[in-house]
Amino acid sequence: MIKSVFIKYILVFFVIITASFTILAFVISSYVIQNSIETKKNIVEAAAKIAKQNVEADFRGSRYGSFGEYVKAEKIKMMWDFSTYSELTDNSLILISDLDGNILVCSSLPEGYLKKDKIPQSAVYEAVNRLGSERYQTLGGVFSGRHLVYPQLLGPAGTDEVFGILFFCSGSIWDDFFVNRIIKDTILSCLWILVASMAIVYFTTEKTISPVREMRKAAKSFELGQFDVRIPIKGRSDEIGELASAFNKMAGSLAFHEETQRMFLANVSHDLRTPMTSIIGFVDAILNGTIPSASHGQYLKIVLAEAKRLERLVASLFELTKIQAQAGDRKFNDVSFDICEEAKRAVIFLAQDIDEKNLEFEFTSDEDNMYVTADPDAIRQILDNLIGNAVKFAPEKGVVKINIANHEKEKKVCISIYNTGTGIPAEDIPFVFDRFYKSDRSRGIDKSGAGLGLFIVRTIIEAYKEKIKVNSEYGKYCEFVFTLQKSSEAGRQK
Predict the structure, then answer these.
(1) According to the CATH classification, is domain 256-325 in 3.30.450.20?
(2) Which of 99-122 are b and which e, b meaning 16 or more Cβ less than 10 Å from the residue's Cβ?
(3) What is the pLDDT of residues 379-435, one digit of tens each?
(4) What stretch of H or E contains 479?
(5) pLDDT tens across 435-448, in order?
(6) CATH 3.30.2130.30 applies to domain 5-177
(7) Rounded-to-integer distance, Cα 424 and Cα 382, Å
(8) Spatial distance between the Cα atoms of 106 and 96, rounded to a whole number of angstroms
(9) What is the dihedral of CA 418, 424, 427, 430, to 10 degrees?
(10) Domain covering 335-485 assigned CATH 3.30.420.270 in the classification
């Protein structure tokens, strides 16, 4: 069984091209043969009539009383004339017989060519009575092989009298030289075109299949965990080029995810180890008396804070595990609720952090109350994450803005959350919603996150078939914008 796609393509094209040229050669040969047959019949028929007229004219102008005497006396001259007709009609031969079938004279023939010296009465009868004797035949066994025979009755002009029969015979039904030359040239042309076509098919197929081979090799490298392999596109803009480009992007994404997962494990290990080390150290110091009892309360608060930090990390990991187990198909309790009110509650929850950083905070909306249909808890999770990130990454005395706007044409509500600050580098924006992503790779600002929040946000947004995007200019600002379906009926959640 052939497994190579390249060989399969070559074989398929070879069969198709060969079959096409075979059919073409057959059609051309058939046409040439048929045309040659018709031409040969016309030539032989015309030559037969001319030979008949010349024989009758010579007989009328002779001094002989009977046709038999004329033939006997002028036999040499007649054979000479017949040889001329024979050369003009591709070596045809001429026989003249009487009404009894006796062959009186014939053109010059090799010895033994005629198998009989008398034409059978059946053939004579057909010729005299014009019973379709103009056909490919052996003339009643006179010839060993079939000949194209055109009989012509010899007799005085204007009368029904017949004193002999002229048989104009051709050994071939078509012009052998012409037909053979045409067929030979056609076959040679088809063979040359076949060779040229197969060469073109070979190089075209090789060019098409080559990237597929590279993809196969790359896929095997990916299987071994090597994601640095790329497919050379070489200026291709066709579907194969697009596939190779998509394959390279996939490889880049896989490499990024591999690196991100490694970073995630390092981050999670750090996030787990640091608070656990603090908790164990402080508890151990309290128990062994290193920390005086008067300071126990202060250090227990630190232990509590570190324990809550662990709780947040575990909760994020649990949320990620739940989303992965459900393949992103969370069950939502959709109701109509006021998104403005929900956003204000999220802001109030972060009021202390806002005050501590002396942030300039702006909240604007097209209307005081704007209703959407969704799960309030899921949307609150989005708001807490995005607004929390805006507050976290805004600099001291920075700006945080929340804007809620109507999109009447699309029947959507658009929520924008903006903050000044470092923003997100342009090269990181395509990956900002991926699992384990953390733009602050130095961990100088975000010390509590595990890079799961934005992935969860995107999962919820996509579950509602809505859109979320990020606009950022590195060193200046960052803005997240997402949409929700506007509620058909205004009403508060229950």
Answers:
(1) no
(2) eebebbbbbeeeeeebeeeebeee
(3) 998 999 999 999 999 999 999 999 999 987 888 999 999 999 988 998 888 888 876
(4) strand 477-485
(5) 656 655 444 445 45
(6) no
(7) 19
(8) 6
(9) -50
(10) no
